[in-house]
What we know:
Layout: H1 6-25, H2 31-43, H3 50-73, H4 80-103, H5 107-131, H6 138-155, H7 159-176, H8 188-193, H9 196-202, H10 205-229, H11 234-255, H12 262-283, H13 286-289, H14 297-321, H15 325-338, H16 347-372, H17 375-397, H18 403-435
Helix pairs in contact: 1-2, 3-5, 4-5, 5-6, 5-7, 6-7, 7-10, 10-11, 10-12, 11-12, 11-14, 11-15, 12-15, 12-17, 14-15, 15-16, 16-17, 17-18
Amino acid sequence: MLHRYPFLHQYYVGRLRTDLSRWAERGLVRREDVDAILKDAGAADRAPGSLPNLLALLGAVLVAAGALLFLAANWEGMGRIAKLAVLSAALWGAHAASYAALRVRSDQFAEAMMLLGVALFGAGIMLIGQIYHLSADPPAGVLLWALGAIVAAWAWPSQLAACAALVLISLWFTLAAPESPLAVYLPFLPVWAAMLPPILRTRWMAAYHVALASAAWFVVVTLVMLMSEDAGASEDLLRLGSALAALFLTAGSLLSALVPAVPFAVPLERYALTGALAAVSLLALPSFHDGRAAGDPWWSGMAALVLLAALAGAVFRWRLASDRLALGAVVLVAVAVGCAVVPAEHGWLALAALNLALVAALIGLIAEGYRRDDRFVVNLGFLAFALTILRLYFDTFWLLFDRSLFFMVGGLLVIALGWVLERKRRHLIGGLGEAA
């Protein structure tokens, strides 16, 4: 498993480096053997032929750009058949090169040629549209391009083609959704989901990250469009978004209980946790509220329903494995959503409660990261805690201090906070190695 998933292997090598240093200090391992062990363990972390692979990708981009420039430079002097012949030859040549590379087990070069084929397919769509003067319909053209990339990703299979397909699907959604009468552009979902089977079956982690980013883009754009149509406030958008992030975090936490799904559950948890913290941190800004705390009841009710689903899953996961990460995130988001029902004249009280809940949640996040033996959670908790403390200082003392005193005290606070938090972070990270 470590060799199949590079991010797990990198974590393993970093962990091994910490353990070996401690073992060498205790005399359990000879110091002269430490470097040899780390060299052997890290050898698999470097993909073989990384330079040729990089050159192949660069070459694919250059060939695609060259084909387009050639057509542009000779556009007037070439007939329709000649234009199509040149592009068709380049397209099938890329696929033939990809097939030949697969036959000799040069997988990365084959991926580069497949990416070139996807790019040339899009160029062919635009060329045919111009030659035959077809009516301009950018969303339809991008969708056709995306479908071609999906077919390529399934047929070969190709992870780079899958990544390109997901990017094109997101672009198609971005172009088509504003022009659609649908409040939620549901056609995106089946097209996006068409890429999940090969990603999950072949465990393409890079494509999986792109798929998560594409899904997040769909959620964000859809919420913004819904809010703009109903003149909803940005606070309502953030509350519903943070509730959805808590739901995705709970889904990732539940998936992590299944060993085969762990490589997919971990990125989902991390993205969702980061999104939930970002949304709640924005809601905790005094200037963001402009003196208001109350939100639209309809949007607050939607956020509450999403949170109820997240709470059910988080409680189940907590009772199953004492995992408090998802449950803590749900409680924090519940405080943020609860602020929507506070009357506007008491907005300062809701804001103070939310900031206190945020600081407490970040401390709990650091502790939970240490308990889970998860360095990402520990580091994210420390980063968010430092930014929150600094933001509270700026919010609180900007109007109370003389400007020069404010910046001097603030500078000293930054230095002291950075020193203390870094020492604590290193202590906890070191403790994670000792706990292993």
